Amino acid sequence: MRRCPVLIAVLLLLSACGGNPAAEGEAEVYYAVVMSEQAQPPDRTVQAVRLVLPEGADPMLFAAERMVLRPDDDALRSAFPDGVTVSGVRLEGDCAVFTFSAEWLEAAGLNKTLAEYCMIKTALRFEGAGSARWEAADADGRMVSGPVLREDMFIDAPLVLVPAWQDIQLYFAAGDGALESEVRPVVLRESESVEWYRQVVDSLIAGPLLTPDLSPVMPERTRRLSVTVENRICYVNFSREFVTNADGGAAAARLTLRALVWSLTELQGVSFVKIRVEGEDLADYFGVDLSLPLERDDERLES
Q1: What DSSP character marks residue 106?
Q2: 21, 31, 79, 120 from 227: Cα distances, Å
Q3: Which residues are CB-contacts of 203 (< 8 A; sequence separation ≥ 6)?
Q4: If you ran DSSP here, which 8-state letter would residue 298 be given?
Q5: Residue whose C-alpha is closest to residue 281's, from 242, 231, 223
Q6: Are 195 and 6 in contact (CB under 8 A)?
Q7: In 208-291, which residue ranges form alpha helices assigned H by DSSP?
Q8: CA torsion angle for 31, 33, 34, 40 (degrees, to 10)?
Q9: Assuming Cys at both sites, which of 12, 55, 84, 217 could form a disulfide with 103, CB separation 3.0 to 4.6 Å?
Q10: d(CA 220, CA 12)
């Protein structure tokens, strides 16, 4: 099961409550507060606006559609990317599922965190909703689904980026060509999701810490040079030691690659892994064809 990262926001202490439905005939929609360098910081980073429901309108869909648009109040803004539209919103149990257009997948960094925070705050005004989730179709028409969001997944703090502990799932050698997972708590200091990918790669390089029976899978002295994600492909750029310090065996190479792919695809947003060394695509790794990105159940990773 993939683990969904906890969301970290640069948020001020918020006074708005959640969990109760909006008044009859109204929809309560949350927007990001405009920050001004000249003025004193506001006492919150998101704020609710009560809107009159048009006659016959579906409250959930109306609130979702207004949430992605520019509000009338110049002191507020939508944190969603320009052009995002809502094609639907539904309840699955107590989870409000927002279906967005492909433009939503361009959301990143603090704006994405604020948008997701507005999403859960708005969802909590729906009767019966206790959580929220988003979904959107990518450029190839595949539906991408986000993590389940809850209000307590966000950290409120005055004008600082607050570190938060969260588990990541890593895979290491367990003997006889097998892999076993080690769940490790890490502290994150960035709202960008790329920090999760870096943490996974760095932790694999460091080796197992909590499970004495497991062994490292990465060649000694390998360094992470960069990690980026685009179109659900995680590009990992290693130092030359990834090749020069490998033992050269095909079985060991497959174990290394499988551990890397399994660990990274535990994260939301990663389906494939492409490996580079010193900035150049690695086409072959001790007999394993790497000309195309690897996926979790790739036959090339099997011995």
Answers
A1: G
A2: 42, 32, 26, 29
A3: 168, 170, 184, 186, 263
A4: -
A5: 242
A6: no
A7: 241-244, 250-264
A8: 170
A9: 84
A10: 43
